[in-house]
């Protein structure tokens, strides 16, 4: 016996008003100053509805109205002009890396208002890491002369898989370093919602928003510093997997010529240190390092000077990275693979060798580029993550003291 179909909910006037408000706010959030006519064309709503809903959004603080505009050809009443209030509140983009915590404070257009960062090299417990994040947030807020009440959401990137519900996968010892009730503790301290996400996923969001990946739907971003990690987008949609593990690179242990997840910076540093430690090896690296440990930057600098040892190191790094990029190309077939993170600018020197080898590894080699976002790539993506939340939940959020 067939069950009777459920009766769809009645579209009440308050419900329709809310739907229309969300539609208008979504258009205004992505545009600049818009006239009532422009909003009518963009939304398909009537003039009366556009003006009534804009009045509601103005009273709520989400929209500001500018002086009416008129040009020489205009006839009749001047057009009303509306704009998304990008100072209605602010968001935070937080990158909790293995070595450093970075906080970006941004307005609702995503423009940076303040930035703060702290080293976490000596941190031993997840609780200590959370405390440093808290202190870095306080520093950023103080720099912008803002209080917690002005923050609408915080996007937070961690170097561990995070599922769709914001839970950190703790199957690996390294991942467990980030799991200490981080989101709950920050909300308890500050009051705003905390949106956890994998750092490479946020790097993909950031790159798709403001980097080389703009207008690219099928995108892979490869964080290539200390450890390889990848964020993947399919037709503009971020991939998570069943437990947040899509894009995790542990499988590299099984790839011939790679063997582990060590990134470009780590390999260059370790091989440079080994060369300097061998007294029989003549290299500019010894002079560049002096009494301090060799860095990846010094390996790239020595190669730029024509040092044969450093050039050999970079060749090995390029060979290895080409295999990693080719594997992503075979598994996910992205149009573009972007090398991101603090090592990205230096890694531009590797691109010719990487691209030369790709055709030998896969019949569908992706285009390869380096990110222009540098070490801010994760925090920029975290800002975008927080803005997505604000735009989706704007009508349910309570704004702090009004400022336009």
TrEMBL record:
<dbReference type="GO" id="GO:0016301">
    <property type="term" value="F:kinase activity"/>
</dbReference>
<protein>
    <submittedName>
        <fullName>Putative NBD/HSP70 family sugar kinase</fullName>
    </submittedName>
</protein>
<dbReference type="InterPro" id="IPR036390">
    <property type="entry name" value="WH_DNA-bd_sf"/>
</dbReference>
<keyword id="KW-0808">Transferase</keyword>
<dbReference type="InterPro" id="IPR000600">
    <property type="entry name" value="ROK"/>
</dbReference>
<comment type="similarity">
    <text>Belongs to the ROK (NagC/XylR) family.</text>
</comment>
<dbReference type="InterPro" id="IPR043129">
    <property type="entry name" value="ATPase_NBD"/>
</dbReference>
<keyword id="KW-0418">Kinase</keyword>
<dbReference type="InterPro" id="IPR036388">
    <property type="entry name" value="WH-like_DNA-bd_sf"/>
</dbReference>
<dbReference type="Pfam" id="PF00480">
    <property type="entry name" value="ROK"/>
</dbReference>
């Amino acid at each position: 016996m067939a069950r009777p179909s459920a009766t769809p909910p009645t579209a009440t006037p308050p419900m329709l008003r809310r739907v229309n408000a969300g539609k208008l706010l979504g258009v205004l959030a992505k545009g600049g100053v818009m006239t009532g006519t422009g909003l009518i064309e963009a939304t398909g709503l009537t003039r009366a509805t556009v003006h009534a809903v804009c009045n509601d959004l103005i009273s709520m603080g989400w929209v500001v109205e500018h002086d009416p505009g008129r040009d020489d050809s205009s006839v009749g009443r001047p057009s009303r002009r509306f704009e998304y209030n990008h100072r209605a509140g602010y968001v935070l983009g937080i990158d909790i890396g293995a070595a450093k915590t970075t906080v970006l404070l941004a307005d609702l257009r995503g423009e940076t208002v303040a930035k703060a960062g702290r080293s976490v090299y000596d941190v031993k417990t997840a609780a200590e890491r959370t405390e440093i994040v808290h202190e870095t947030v306080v520093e950023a807020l103080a720099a912008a002369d803002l209080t917690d009440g002005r923050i609408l959401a915080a996007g937070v990137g961690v170097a561990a898989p995070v599922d769709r519900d914001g839970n950190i996968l703790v199957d690996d010892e390294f991942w467990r370093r980030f799991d200490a009730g981080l989101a709950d503790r920050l909300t308890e301290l500050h009051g705003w919602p905390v949106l956890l996400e994998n750092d490479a996923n946020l790097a993909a969001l950031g790159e798709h928003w403001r980097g080389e990946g703009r207008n690219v739907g099928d995108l892979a971003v490869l964080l290539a510093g200390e450890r390889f990690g990848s964020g993947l987008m399919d037709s503009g949609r971020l991939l998570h997997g069943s437990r947040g593990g899509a894009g995790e690179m542990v499988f590299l242990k099984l790839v011939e010529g790679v063997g582990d997840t060590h990134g470009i910076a780590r390999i260059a540093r370790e091989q440079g240190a080994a060369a300097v430690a061998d007294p029989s090896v003549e290299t500019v690296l010894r002079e560049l390092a002096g009494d301090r440990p060799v860095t990846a930057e010094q390996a790239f600098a020595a190669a730029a000077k024509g040092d044969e040892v450093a050039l050999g190191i970079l060749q090995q790094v390029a060979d290895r990275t080409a295999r990693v990029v080719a594997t992503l190309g075979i598994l996910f077939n992205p149009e573009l693979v972007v090398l991101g993170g603090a090592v990205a600018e230096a890694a531009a020197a590797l691109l010719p060798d990487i691209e030369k080898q790709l055709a030998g590894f896969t019949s569908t080699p992706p285009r390869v580029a380096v990110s222009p976002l540098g070490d801010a790539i994760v925090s920029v993506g975290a800002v975008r993550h927080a803005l997505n939340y604000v735009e989706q939940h704007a009508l349910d959020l309570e704004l702090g003291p009004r400022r336009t």
